[in-house]
């Protein structure tokens, strides 16, 4: 479903991604974890060309993302992306935020888009918030609207860039529960997260990054109990004990 081959990304002399190779099969959930500055967000943003790469190739569902011939708008309509900062339109209601892209990009009739959006919002516990504006919603509710907005495009892949990092602790659970529901439905997902318990619980593979490189890939039960690299051991000793 997602193939990343020998990908390199530089900011000037800073090599933020170095020879990245990764394959995410269909219906699998991969977590990208690691220290700040490891390249996690840059990598996930490269999957739908929010970041350019200097070399290598990224293929999503058979389409080469960074090929100049690729219709990037069509590609992005098939890849749901949830940002840490919500990025909702403040002047639109929750329902309008969810329906705008299906209507404008996929030309779905308004009545159908509204019906689909209401079902999505209800499934995420927001059925009574359809007419609320983002400023009237909690952070957790806004992030669930953002998830509904991404799902409204019927994506084949969902990408999450630290979806809970901007939330107060008591709001984190409701967003993680929404992502758990997607995982159980078989959605292919890549999640950048600092929530180690969540990564251990729902992810098929843990991808540990540091200094722009993939240091270790392992199933969660193996990675968290018996990491193979000293860098991973050091990271876990800090994040699991504090």
TrEMBL record:
It comes from the Bacteria. Belongs to the ABC transporter superfamily. Keywords: ATP-binding, Nucleotide-binding, Transport. This is Amino acid ABC transporter ATP-binding protein. GO terms for molecular function: ABC-type amino acid transporter activity; ATP binding; ATP hydrolysis activity. InterPro entries: AAA+_ATPase, ABC_ATPase_HisP-typ, ABC_transporter-like_ATP-bd, ABC_transporter-like_CS, MetN_ABC_transporter-like, P-loop_NTPase. Residues 2-236 form the ABC transporter domain.
